[in-house]
Amino acid sequence: KRPDADLVRNVVEGLEEHPLFDDYWAGWVPDLAAISIPAYVVASWPDHGLHTRGTLLGFEQLGSENKWLEIHGRKKWEYYYSRDSLERQRRFFDRYLKDADNGWDEVPTVRYERRDAFYDGEIRNAGDWPIPGADHEVLFLTPDGLLDEDLPDASTPLRYTATDQSQQLSFRHVFESDTEITGSVRLTLWVEVDSAEDMDLFVGLSKLDRNGEEVLFAGYNDTEYGHVASGWLRVSHREVDPERSTPVRPYLRHDRLMKLEPGQRVSADVEILPSSTMFRTGESLVVRIQGTELPGAGDIAHVDPLNSGAHIVYVGGDTDSRLTVPVIVQ
After folding, report:
1. Which domains does the chain have, with CATH numbers?
2. What's this model's pTM, rounded to 2 decimal places?
């Protein structure tokens, strides 16, 4: 080790000095494709805003030919150190540190919990991550608060006061058959500000039961109860890298600011972080949009909000605001 090596950096100071992605941040990005040793990666659905996204992207980028991924929907430390979890870890280490012939090579590449409710889910297996063969289904936002397979004919503006915690837009889709949604979700919005040059969007996905009551899940970090998934976007950072994006995951460049002017209408993609949830016939998926932290997202601590005035979201017609979800074919 070099005594002068810059091994620890102050992230807050770095953000103040380098607010956009530049050579400073590029120097932090590891070459995960160069890693060739076996890997056993564990992630949790509730850890949005902290570890979920980075862990799953890291697994995707690992160069190892022998890698496994496990994703659960529970409290991370409790789950990771549970007896059955430790036994799986032990088998992995015995296989690669002791060369034990213990059947580990036959373990499915991906093991994940498909959640039904709080601490209620089913363990599923898959051959890779993201799960191959998912159908990318598009649901359009409508003026009457629905998520519909058909695009409304006319463009309609909807608005909320950006700094009012009680104001939001919500859109609901009722499932006509059992449906599993697993993976990242992409929300494309046509938006406008009435008196500002930027806007912060806070987005959440929720599940409702057949009676319209919200179904809660294990929450972020030390939050007991949470919703399905979270996403955030500062709209001046909306520029997408098409080479690294997918139909359900926009990859933002973060290398320049694209400020707004009052009355300017723009399209912006919000990455809603990965999750796995089962929706039974008659249950609903709801997307909520507002200008402040959403209940159910946990204490993410966005400390520098810049919202003011009203946010306007356009739906229908040539402003085809939509939600693209990965449906897993059973």
Report:
1. 11-126 (3.40.50.1820), 135-328 (2.60.120.260)
2. 0.94
